[in-house]
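HUMAN: Would you supply a protein with C-alpha cells?

ASSISTANT:
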Amino acid sequence: MKLNIAVLAGDGIGPEISAQGVAVMQAVCQKFGHEATFTPALVGAAAIDAVGDPFPEDTYEICKKADAVLFSSVGDPKFDNNPNAKVRPEQGLLAMRKKLGLFANIRPVQTFDCLIHKSPLKDELVRGADFVCIRELTGGMYFGEKKEGDDYAYDTNAYSREEVERILKVAYAYAQRRRKHLTVVDKANVLASSRLWRKVAQEMAPKYPDVTTDFMYVDNASMRMIQEPTFFDVMVTENTFGDILTDEGSCITGSMGLLPSASTGESTPVFEPIHGSWPQAKGLNIANPLAQILSVAMLFEYFNLVKEGALVRKAVDASLDANVRTPEIQVADGSKYGTKEVGAWIVDWINKA
C-alpha cells in the first residue's frame, strides 16, 4: 500500500516526538512492504514566525492532498502571555479542523498495567479502565459567534441537528464495535444546545437496539470518570465539554504522554497525541514519544492495516515492560532514556520482530 503522509510537527516538543513517530511508521512500512512518503508542512507558532499564518494555504493544500496527517503540537509562551495577540498558534489547529471538516475527535483512554502506580487514582478504581471519548470538533463555542471587549464578552454555543446527528452516528458505530454501551454527555438541565443534543440522541437511540444508551450531565460525568472510570465504554459530547473531559480522562493513565487521538470527518484524517507543546521541555530530549507513536498505530488501523497497528502497540508495550521510558514514567532507579532513545528502541524492536 502507498501512503502519502503530511507531517505537521508544529511547536515545542513537536519536532522531537514527530521524528520518532515518522521513524516508527517507516520501520513498520518497510517490514510489511508498504511505501510511505512524508511531506513536512508548517503549523502553529512556527508558521506564524515564517509566514504570519498559523495554518498557511500551502499547509492546507499539502494536508488536503495527503492520505493522512501526522500532527504533533502547537503553542508557544510568547503568545500565551500576550492577551492582545490577534493571531495565535491554536488558531492553526482550529483552522485545520474546520477546513478539513474534522468533526469527530476520537480519544481512547486505556490503562497500562505496568503504569497503574503512576495514576493519581487508586489501583482498584483504574485497573481495567478502557473507554473512548468522542468529541464533536467543529461546532459549539469554539466556532460560534463571538464578541470581546474590555467590559463585556460572549461566546455562542450553537449546534444544528445535522451536526449532532453525524457525531452520534460515529459514536454509535464505535459502541457497536466495542461493548455496546454509549453515554451521551450534556447539560440539558441548563443549556438549550444540550437539550437539542439530548432530543436528537433520544430519537436516534431506537435505531441502535443493540446499544444501551444512557445520558449524563457533564458535571456528573466528570465525577464518574474519577470515581468509576470502568463504567464507561463510549462517551460522546459537544466540543467544549469534550475538550475538558478528554484531558481529565488522560490523567487516569498517569501521563498525558501515553494517549493518542484521531480526528476524522469529511477530508484527510489527522492523528496526534492529546498533549500540548510543552515548550519548557523543548530541545531537552525528555518528552515522551509514546502518544505520538500510538497515533501511528491509530493511523494504520484507520486504513484497516490491523497487523501493522498491532505491531506498533506490541512494541510500545514491550518498551514499557523493559522499563525503556522517559523520566516522567520511569521506575525508581531505572535507566535514563530520552525521547530519541525510546524511539530508537521501539524501531529496533519492530525491526527484530
User: Anything to note?
Assistant: The chain has two domains: 1-102+266-353, 104-258.
